[in-house]
Amino acid sequence: MAADYLEWLRREGRIVIVGASLAGLRAAETLRAEGFAGELTLIGDEPYEPYDRPPLSKSVLLGMASPHHTELPHRWEIDAKWRLGVAASGLDLTAKRVRLADGDEVEYDRLLIATGVRARPWPKEDEARLDGVCLLRTREDAADLYRRLKAGPRRVFVIGAGFAGSEVASACREMGIPVTVAERAGAPLVGALGGVVGAVAADLATENGVDLRTHVTVTSLEGDPVGRVRAVHLSDESVVEADVVVVSLGSLRNTDWLAGSGLGAGPRGIACDAGCRAFDFRGIVTDDVFVAGDVARSPHALFGYQFLSLEHWGNAVAQAETAAHNMICHGADRRPHLWMPAFWSSMFGVNIKSVGVPPMGEQLMITQGSLAERRFVGVYGYQGRIVAAVTFDNTRWLEFYQRQIEQGAPFPVEHPTVDRRPEGRQPVPADFPDPSLPTHGPMVTLSGYSPAEQQLVFHPARH
Amino acid sequence: MRLVVDLNKCQGYAQCAFLAPDVFAMHGEESLIYNPRADEEQRERLARAVAACPVQAITADGLDGAADPADGAADGASREASDGR
């Protein structure tokens, strides 16, 4: 019976993908590549075909690429119906229908949700509307920000020193624009990489001329009489004049449209099993709804079966491919999504890459190179195991550490390494902020019940 | 022609930056920046860069035929996979 259904589904079923960005596109390509011959519909709220976002804060701001031309290459003919420029507004699990913002409805036999995240806006709406207050997530955001930077602002103010904010600050300095960065934590990148590595990022920023203000928050944005932003007020009572303000406070998961649908969806994403099948709100796995990309949270065997929610480019690709494969496969042929978390960033000419889950680490060892030289490998340990590694301008070693994580290699690291320095031999606290304090920083959020411990291990209060 | 580089794979060997300097550039010692939309006149250089990448990190479409599917309509996907292999 089930076999018949799958054969029918592959031949003439209807698959709907909500979210027409990286994950949606790669899932569509995989479906076709693996022989899905039925009707495929992609729904996207932006009026553009799938485009790549990482260049928007890098080559676009550096003037090497157009914000309007980062569309992703297609690896496979996908022969899809595109519903672009219209958001999904609701889901009826029983009738198997997606409601669209224009009132239309699309029926599916199997559904993939890949709605991703959006930039967290400045919370005070009247201030957020001031001319010159920018976000950076979409290609329109990038075009707007690039235009403002080219116009030669007197000063740019970046709220939040995560990766995106730091990349913007780096681009500003490269263009010779004065820039101030405000960060609630003690250094940039602390949510993602901890305080020890964050201190290196802080030095990099200040040496490149960034006016970095840490342990402060922005209390208000001040506009002039015609509605342009002109100054930023900080919690230490200082005031910084700026005519461009970039709000870089992390992101919000696009799950609002699923409210009341019965899916296990909320501010921390949509929970799914390792095979990318969504859970309903009772914690029971659904048969016909799959999830992939930034919006998904799924358990990872390598990290204590904790539910990982990863806003990583590579995760969107890998999870989309797994979800698509599983959507048109029998149970026994399904694959788990066991992708090794990995990301990259570059700022001030330094390449930063990571594998594993750094915020899980309690301790850090610098196994190669040195923090002072900004060229090093840092290894994160948790309960006697290596759980993550980060490199600054040392990317070629990362693959070795990835294998170490996969093998559950012991921490502290005992193997001899090339370019080992005396100062890195002792593990030090990795110095992540208290997860119970509000932060916008982490790109990885961990939560969920470990079968071994039956307790919530790490619960960042992001909302 | 559209292209994308998997920067998780990229290890900064800079072969692409030597072979197609108008499309790829090193930014610092090992980070790569690139233009995701290469001009038509870059076709041959881009093809060489795709082939030369030691870690096969570059995916481009429109390299294998005359027509550039990137200039088609929203549903104009490329005719076949081309990831440099």
UniProtKB/TrEMBL annotation, chain A:
Keyword vocabulary terms for this entry: FAD, Flavoprotein, Oxidoreductase
Region (Disordered): 412-447
Keyword Oxidoreductase: yes
GO MF entries: oxidoreductase activity, acting on NAD(P)H
Residues annotated as signal peptide: none
Cofactor(s) recorded in Swiss-Prot or TrEMBL: FAD
GO annotations of cellular component type: cytoplasm
Pfam families hit by this protein: Pyr_redox_2 (PF07992), Reductase_C (PF14759)
Keyword Flavoprotein included in the entry's annotation: yes
Positions of the FAD/NAD(P)-binding domain: 14-320
Domain called Reductase C-terminal: residue spans: 343-412
PANTHER family assigned: APOPTOSIS-INDUCING FACTOR 1 (PTHR43557), RIESKE DOMAIN-CONTAINING PROTEIN-RELATED (PTHR43557:SF2)
Name the UniProt record assigns to this protein: NADPH-dependent 2,4-dienoyl-CoA reductase/sulfur reductase-like enzyme
TrEMBL record, chain B:
Cofactor: [3Fe-4S] cluster
Keyword Kinase: no
Record key words, sorted: 3Fe-4S, Electron transport, Iron, Iron-sulfur, Metal-binding, Transport
Function field: Ferredoxins are iron-sulfur proteins that transfer electrons in a wide variety of metabolic reactions.
GO molecular function: 3 iron, 4 sulfur cluster binding; electron transfer activity; iron ion binding
Residue span of region Disordered: 62-85
Entry keyword annotation includes Ion transport: no
Official protein name in the record: Ferredoxin
Bias (Low complexity) ranges: 62-76
Gene3D superfamilies per record: 3.30.70.20
Top-level taxon: Bacteria
A Pfam family: Fer4_13
